[in-house]
Write a structure and sequence with these properties.
Chain A: Pfam families: AFOR_C, AFOR_N. The complex is a heterodimer of chains A (about 575) and B (about 400). Chain A is built from 25 helices and 16 strands. With about 575 residues, chain A is an alpha+beta fold. In chain B, a hairpin with a 2-residue loop joins strand 12 and strand 13. The complex binds iron/sulfur cluster and zinc ion (2 copies).
Chain lengths: ~575, ~400
C-alpha cells in the first residue's frame, strides 16, 4: 500500500494496553484519513458523553503526510466536544503528525481512563505508557521540554487537566488543536502527553506524477496574492486580515456590538512586524510559513486571536494581546473561546476586562479559581448563569471567531451549518466573499449561497481528511490535490470523487449530531445579528441580517443536503448506506 | 441566477467567443435551471445535475479551432496541452471527446471528465466549462479554454501548417472576417492624471472597459494600475477589466496597511515598475497574438533550458518590445519585467501577455498595447505566409 500505513494504534488507558491493528483499506480509500477517518472510527461511540471513559480520542494523519506535498504534514484530532456536545474535529500542523506517520501509524485511537497521569510514548519498536505524575500540573512548555528526548510532543496544560471546556491540546512547536475543548477530553483520560518518533518513509506510487502535481501547486501558490503576495499571509501571517476586516467593517468589536475598532491598527500585520520583529514560522513542511514568531521565537498571535483579545474586548495594546496569546498557549486554552467568553462576561457585567485583568482571568480560568470556575464553562453557560443568554455570541455553544456575519452572508450561513458549531473554517466563505478566491461573490447577498456553502463544506471535509491546510486553497484546488493524492496512493482521485468523500463525512457528522438531539433550532445565530446593525463607514452599510431571507436560504440548504425541513434525516439510516 | 445567466450570455456575445445561437447555461441552487439553445441546454442540465458544482456553460465557439485541434491530435490522445501560462497555471490541460466516441447521451461521460477538470471540448458540440461556485466562474473557464485553444491552434499552425480538409478556408475566413482591426483612435483618455482619487478610479474603470470593448483582451485577463504619490491604485485579483467599479484597491506604497491583500497578483511587478521607471500608469493584458509570438524562439533546438516560460534568461525582441520569461505573482515576472520595460514602454512576458506604461496617463499605455499586439499579429501572418509558401 502506498500513502497509508494501514495501521492504527489502539490504546486502552483503563487497562494500560497498546495494540497495533489493521485498518481495512476500503475504509482508508473511502475516508482518506484525518477528519474523515476519525469521524468514521467514531461510529460506535458518538452517543457517549465526552467525558465518559469509553469515548475515544482519535489522532489521525492523512495519506499525504510524510511526503513533501505542500501543507500536508498535519493531523486531525477527533472526539466529541465537551463545549458543544457535537462531534468534533480539529486540524493541526507540526512535526508530531509527521513523526506519528513515520512511526508507522495512520491513527491513534485512545479510550479509557488511566488511574494515574500517564504519557503515551510511540516509536517504531515500542508503544508504551509511562507514569507522568511529575508532569501533572505543569505548563505546556515545561512538559514539552521534559519529553523532547522522546520525539515530538503533543500535550495538555493545566486547562486540560482541570477540565476547562475550551482547553486545547498543544503541539510541541506551538500549534494547537483548538476550539472544542479536546484538551479536557484528554485530561479526563489522565493523559498528559503523547510523544512520537519514527523513521519510516511514506511510499509514493508515481514519483514523476507527484513532482508534476507538486509543481502545479507551487505555481498556484505563487500566483495567489493571499498566499505569496507581498501583503499576503506568508509575509504578515493571518493578521494580514486585520486591516482588511476593518476596512470591510466586519471586525467584531465589544462582543459584536459593533464591527469596527478604531485601535485595530495597533495590531495589524505591519504593526506586529514592526513592534515584535515578526519572523516567518509555520507548520512543519509547509512552504507558506504563515505563522509568525517574535525574534525570541515566541509564537505571535493569529488574526482571530488579535481581534478577540483586541477589538472584542476593546483592548488596543498589542503587547497585552501578545501576552494573552502566550498565556493561553502555556495554559492550554483556546484563544478565541477564552477571549469571547471574557467579552460576553464583560458585556453582561457592564465592563470589558482591561489588559491586566485579562491576564489574571486567564489564569483563573485554567485553574478554575474564583470567577474562573464559571468562565471555564464557555460563554453560553456563562450567559445562562448570569441570566443573559443572548450575550453569548456563539453557535451550538462554540464562540464565533473574528468575521462578523452581518458583513458576509455566506459566513452567516456557514456558522450555523457547521457541524462543530460557530467556526469559520468549515465552509470558509471568507475565501470568496472577502478574499476573492477562487472567484468573488457578493458578500451582502444570500443568492446561491446555500449551494456554495454546501459545496465548500464537502470540499473542506475532504481537505481536512487529506490532511491539508485550508490556506493552500487560496491558490490550489482539489484538481491539484487530487493529482497529488493519486500520485502518492496509486488510487485515482479527482475533485468530484473527493467532494463525494467530503459529503459522506459531512453527512456522517450531521447524523451523529442529530442522534444526539441537534436539529434546526440549533442552526441559528445569536439574536443580535438579526436585530442590531453593525458599524457603517467608508460607504459601507452593515444592516442587521434579514431573518426571513436567512431562514429561506437555510431551508434551501437542507433541501440541497437531502435533509428534512427540520434539518434531520427522518427515518433514513444513513450509516447503513455508507462504507 | 437567471440574471447572471443573461449577463454572461451577453458577455459571450460581446466578446464574440461563442456563436449567437449556440450558447446555453445551467445552474443549480435548490433546483436546476437551464437556459439557452435547447440542445445545449439539455446537455448542460444533464451534465451539471451529475456534478457537485453550481454552474455550467456549454457553447459552440465562434471559431473552429478547438475542433481542429482535436482532429489534428494523434489517435491515442485524450487532451490537448497548450503552453501558455494561463492554461499551464489554471487549467493544466484540456480533455476532449471525439465525435465518434459520443454514443447516446454524452452527459455522463462529460460529467466524469468535468469531475476532474474545469473545462472540456466536445468535438462538433463545443466547449463545456463548469463553475464550482458561481455562474461567472463557468464563464471564466469557458473564456480560458477559448483563449487556450486559440493560442495553441495558432502556434500549431505556424509549426505544422494546414493538415485538414477545409482548414485553410476556415482560417482565411477567420483572418479576413472574424479578426477586426485593432486601434486606439476614437477613445477618450484623461491627458495627465492628477492625484484625485475619484478621477483615478473613473479613469481605471473606463480604460478597463476599453480594453475589452476593443477586443484587446478578454474581460478578466489582466490588470491595471495608477501610481499616485503614496498610493498605488490597482485592480483586484480575479476582477473583470470591464467591470472594475468597486474593484480597485488603494495600496500604500510603504506597505503600512495590508488591505491590498486582495489586489492583483501582479502588485509586486507593478510596484517595481513604478520604482524603476517613474511611470504613472500600467496596463497589463493577455492579447492573443502577443502570447503566441512570445513563445516562438529560434534557439529552442540548441537551448538547454526546457522550462522556457520561467527559466529563460534571455531578453528577446518583438518589434522593439523586449520579451522576458517569468511566472505570475511572486514568480520571476516581477523581477524580469521592471528592468526592461522602461526603455520601450512595453514588455511581453513569455506565454503570458503584455505590460505597457504611460508616463502621464493611459492614452500612451493603451496605444502601446495596441501597437504591440498589431505588430505581433502582422508578424504572425508574415511568418505563416512564408511557411505556407
Ligand atoms: S499555511 Fe500556515 S497554517 Fe497552513 S500549514 Fe502552512 S504554516 Fe501551517
Ligand atoms: Zn497576466
Ligand atoms: Zn531560450
Amino acid at each position: 500500500m502506498f500513502g497509508w500505513t494501514g495501521k492504527l494504534l489502539h490504546v486502552d488507558l483503563t487497562r494500560g494496553t497498546c495494540e497495533r491493528r489493521e485498518i481495512p483499506s476500503e475504509i482508508l480509500h473511502a475516508y482518506l484519513g484525518g477528519r474523515g477517518l476519525g469521524v468514521r472510527l467514531m461510529r460506535d461511540y458518538f452517543r457517549l458523553g465526552p467525558f465518559e471513559p469509553d469515548m475515544p480520542l482519535i489522532f489521525a494523519v492523512g495519506p499525504l503526510c510524510g511526503t513533501n506535498s505542500p501543507t500536508a504534514a498535519r493531523l486531525a484530532c477527533v472526539s466529541r466536544s465537551p463545549l458543544t456536545g457535537t462531534i468534533y474535529d480539529c486540524s493541526a500542523g507540526g512535526r508530531f503528525a509527521w513523526r506519528l506517520k513515520a512511526a508507522g501509524l495512520d491513527a491513534l485511537f485512545i479510550t479509557g481512563k488511566s488511574p494515574h497521569p500517564v504519557v503515551l510514548c510511540i516509536d517504531p519498536v515500542r508503544d508504551e505508557l509511562h507514569p507522568a505524575q511529575s508532569l501533572w500540573g505543569k505548563g505546556v512548555k515545561e512538559t514539552v521540554a521534559a519529553l523532547k528526548e522522546r520525539g515530538s510532543v503533543t500535550a495538555i496544560g493545566p486547562a486540560g487537566e482541570n477540565g476547562v471546556l475550551f482547553a486545547n491540546i498543544m503541539m510541541g512547536e506551538g500549534n494547537s488543536i483548538g476550539r472544542g475543548g479536546l484538551g479536557a477530553v484528554m485530561g479526563a483520560k489522565g493523559l498528559k502527553a503523547v510523544t512520537a518518533q519514527g523513521d519510516g518513509v511514506t511510499g509514493i506510487a508515481d514519483r514523476e506524477r507527484f513532482d508534476a502535481a507538486r509543481a502545479d501547486v507551487m505555481r498556484l501558490f505563487l500566483a495567489s496574492p493571499v498566499i505569496f503576495g507581498e501583503l499576503g499571509i506568508a509575509e504578515y501571517g493571518t493578521p494580514a486580515l486585520v486591516d482588511l476586516m476593518a476596512q470591510r467593517r466586519m471586525a467584531p468589536t465589544e462582543n459584536f456590538r459593533s464591527t469596527f475598532f478604531a485601535g485595530s491598527g495597533n495590531y495589524s500585520g505591519p504593526a506586529i512586524r514592526k513592534e515584535c520583529g515578526a519572523r516567518k514560522e509555520g507548520c512543519y513542511g509547509c512552504p507558506i510559513q504563515c505563522k509568525k514568531a517574535s525574534a525570541a521565537g515566541e509564537p505571535l498571535p493569529e488574526y482571530e486571536t488579535v481581534n478577540h483579545f483586541g477589538a472584542l474586548n476593546g483592548i488596543s495594546d498589542l503587547h497585552a494581546i501578545v501576552r494573552a496569546n502566550t498565556m493561553c498557549n502555556e495554559l492550554g486554552l483556546d484563544t478565541i473561546s477564552a477571549a469571547a467568553t471574557l467579552s460576553a462576561f464583560g458585556e453582561a457585567r457592564g465592563r470589558f476586562p482591561d489588559a491586566a485583568e485579562v491576564a489574571s482571568l486567564l489564569a483563573d480560568i485554567a485553574y478554575r479559581h474564583d470567577q474562573g470556575e464559571l468562565l471555564s464553562l464557555g460563554s453560553r453557560r456563562v450567559g445562562e448563569v448570569l441570566g443573559k443568554p443572548e450575550l453569548s455570541m456563539s453557535v451550538k455553544s462554540l464562540e464565533l471567531p473574528a468575521y462578523d456575519p452581518r458583513g458576509a452572508y455566506g459566513m452567516a450561513l456557514a456558522y450555523v451549518t457547521s457541524n462543530r458549531g460557530g467556526c469559520h473554517l468549515r465552509a470558509y466563505p471568507i475565501s470568496h466573499e472577502i478574499l476573492r478566491k477562487p472567484v468573488p461573490t457578493d458578500r451582502f447577498s444570500f443568492s446561491g449561497k446555500a449551494r456554495i456553502i454546501k459545496i465548500a463544506e464537502d470540499v473542506n471535509a475532504a481537505v481536512d481528511s487529506l490532511v491539508a491546510c485550508k490556506f493552500a486553497f487560496f491558490g490550489a484546488t482539489l484538481e491539484e490535490y487530487g493529482e497529488l493524492l493519486s500520485a502518492v496512493t496509486g488510487v485515482e482521485y479527482g475533485p468530484e470523487s473527493l467532494k463525494a468523500i467530503g459529503e459522506r463525512i459531512y453527512l456522517t457528522e450531521r447524523f451523529y449530531n442529530c442522534g444526539n438531539g441537534f436539529d434546526r433550532s440549533h442552526d441559528t445565530l445569536p439574536r443580535r445579528f438579526f436585530e442590531e446593525a453593525g458599524s457603517a463607514g467608508e460607504g459601507i452599510d452593515v444592516p442587521p441580517i434579514d431573518r426571513a431571507r436567512f431562514d429561506e436560504e437555510l431551508q434551501k440548504y437542507y433541501r440541497i443536503r437531502g435533509l428534512d425541513e427540520d434539518g434531520g434525516f427522518g427515518d433514513r439510516d444513513l450509516l447503513g448506506e455508507l462504507p | 441566477m437567471r440574471d447572471q445567466i443573461s449577463k454572461y450570455t451577453g458577455k459571450l456575445l460581446a466578446d464574440r467567443s461563442a456563436c449567437a445561437d449556440g450558447i446555453a447555461f445551467a445552474a443549480q441552487d435548490d433546483a436546476l435551471i437551464t437556459a439557452g439553445a435547447p440542445d445545449l441546454a439539455a446537455l448542460a442540465g444533464g451534465t451539471l445535475s451529475r456534478l457537485n458544482s453550481l454552474a455550467l456553460v456549454a457553447a459552440r465557439p465562434s471559431l473552429p479551432f478547438a475542433d481542429f485541434l482535436i482532429a489534428r491530435a494523434g489517435e491515442g490522445e485524450e487532451c490537448i496541452v497548450p503552453q501558455d501560462t494561463e492554461t499551464r497555471t489554471f487549467l493544466h490541460d484540456i480533455p476532449f471527446l471525439r465525435k465518434k466516441d459520443l454514443a447516446g447521451d454524452p452527459a455522463p461521460v462529460l460529467a466524469r471528465l468535468l469531475g476532474n477538470r474545469k473545462g472540456v471540448i466536445v468535438e462538433g458540440i463545443g466547449i463545456v466549462a463548469v463553475g464550482a461556485i458561481t455562474v461567472e466562474q463557468a464563464f471564466i473557464n469557458y473564456s480560458s479554454v477559448f483563449h487556450s485553444t486559440f493560442v495553441k491552434y495558432l502556434q500549431d499552425l505556424l509549426a505544422d501548417g494546414f493538415r485538414l480538409p477545409g482548414e485553410r478556408e476556415a482560417f482565411e475566413a477567420f483572418r479576413r472576417q472574424w479578426l477586426r482591426p485593432l486601434f486606439a483612435e476614437g477613445l477618450d483618455f484623461a491627458g495627465a492624471l492628477s492625484l484625485d482619487k475619484n478621477g483615478i478610479l473613473a479613469e481605471i474603470e473606463r480604460v478597463g472597459r476599453y480594453t475589452v470593448e476593443r477586443g484587446l483582451v478578454d474581460s478578466f485577463f489582466g490588470n491595471i494600475s495608477v501610481s499616485a504619490g503614496e498610493l498605488i491604485y490597482i485592480s483586484q485579483t480575479a476582477a473583470s477589466l470591464d467591470e472594475l467599479k468597486g474593484c480597485i484597491d488603494p495600496v500604500p506604497a510603504d506597505n503600512s496597511s495590508t488591505t491590498g491583500i486582495t489586489a492583483s497578483s501582479e502588485l509586486l511587478a507593478h510596484r517595481k515598475i513604478y520604482e524603476q521607471t517613474g511611470a504613472r500608469v500600467i496596463l497589463h493584458g493577455h492579447p492573443k497574438f502577443s502570447v503566441v509570438m512570445s513563445m516562438l524562439c529560434d534557439r529552442k533546438r540548441e537551448c538547454a533550458i526546457k522550462d522556457c516560460w520561467k527559466e529563460c534568461p534571455h531578453v528577446r525582441d518583438l518589434g522593439g518590445t523586449p520579451v522576458v520569461a517569468g511566472e505570475i505573482g511572486a514568480g520571476g515576472l516581477a523581477k524580469r519585467v521592471p528592468p526592461v520595460i522602461g526603455a520601450s514602454g512595453s514588455a511581453i512576458v513569455y506565454g503570458h501577455g503584455v505590460f505597457t506604461l504611460g508616463r502621464q496617463g493611459f492614452g500612451e499605455a493603451f496605444a502601446a498595447m495596441v501597437d504591440v499586439e498589431n505588430f505581433c499579429r502582422e508578424e504572425y501572418f508574415r511568418q505563416l505566409d512564408i511557411t505556407k509558401a
